Amino acid sequence: MVSQHDNDMQVTVEDIHAYIDGELSDHAAALVRAYLHEHPDAAEVAADYEAINAAILSRSARADALPVPEEHIKAVRGRRRAPLLAASVALIAAGASAGWVAHGMFSPQTNVLDNLARETGANWVTYAPDARRPVELAAADAAQLADWLTNRTGRSVAVPMLDDQGFTFLGGRLVAGETRPAAMLMYQDTTGRRLVVLMSPEFTGDGPTGMHFRRQTESASVIWANGKEGFGVAGPFSEEELRRAAVAVRDGFAL
Fold first, then answer.
1. Three-class DSSP category at 222
2. 3-class SS of residue 225
3. Which pTM does this prediction carry?
4. What is the pLDDT of residues 150-169, one digit of tens each?
5. CA 169, CA 190: separation in Å to the nearest integer?
6. pLDDT in tens, 215-224
7. Residues paired with residue 115 on neighbouring β-strands, in sequence order
């Protein structure tokens, strides 16, 4: 069970499962969220479980879906009380089972996620180097920016604060998608490196996904979807830095 003693947080794999499934109290969920922010290895395991859960839910929702054998579910979720490292090993060992669950699922979504990664990276290449006007509305107008982007994209747009991840909010703008406008937010670290966040209402995948890392020529990105919109964070950062920012963005949009 989630506990905290003298700033020494105790989080089990069972707690992470409960957090992913939305079964924790607000206080416990906040503790797990903070733990994942501070432990990228745990955040990666959580993302893997999210992807597996999404595959199971989406697959079972299809009329032509095959029933998921009980042994496959147990292989993925049966070791909920194991230490985190053991759970990571179990995930690898259960790769064949997870692959069966995701059969026919991830190839179409992979193409969509690749497109989302390219779109996020293209916005970083276009706007991050701009010294004069990288954003349309600055951080001082964050509330107006959120309202404007919400109205134009038809989606609820939040402005997550990423100070705990080392990024200061600069502002944002409306950007063009293939068929619909998208929202772009920009952040900057203390060395001047810029991070772009993209929210695209054009995502046409089969359902929620886990977080996926992609490396482009000049930057890298982490992309994911919640079943209605696609999200991406991009910049010249390590996978660990991008995943930490992505988790904060995801949580910010979920509020």
1. strand
2. strand
3. 0.58
4. 999 999 999 999 999 999 99
5. 12
6. 988 899 999 9
7. none
Q: Are 46 and 19 in contact (CB under 8 A)?
A: yes
* Number of helical H runs and strand E runs in the chain: 9, 9
pLDDT band at 84 (very low <50, low <70, confident <90, very high): low
Closest CA to 230 of 195, 194, 196, 204: 204
Evaluate if residue 88 carries a pLDDT over 60.
no
Q: 179: Cβ–Cβ under 8 A, 6 or more apart, which residues? A: 202
Q: Which of 159, 115, 119 is CA-nearest to residue 137?
A: 159
Residue 83: exposed, middle, or buried by beta-carbon count in 10 A (0-12, 13-18, 19+)? exposed
Alpha carbon distance, N-terminus to C-terminus of the chain: 24
Residue ranges and CATH numbers for the domains of the chain are 3-101 (no CATH), 106-254 (3.40.1000)
Q: Say which residues have a Cβ less than 8 Å from residue 172's Cβ, sequence separation at least 6.
A: 135, 136, 137, 145, 149, 159, 183, 184, 185, 186
- For 232, the token pair is 């991406």
- Say if CB 1 and CB 18 are below 8 A apart: no
Helices (H), the chain: 13-20, 26-38, 40-61, 70-77, 84-93, 95-101, 106-127, 142-153, 239-254
Single-letter amino acid code for the residue at 146: A
Three state DSSP letters for 85-117: HHHHHHHHHCHHHHHHHCCCCHHHHHHHHHHHH
Cα 84 vs. chain centroid, distance in angstroms? 20
Name the residue with tokens 């060395």: 191
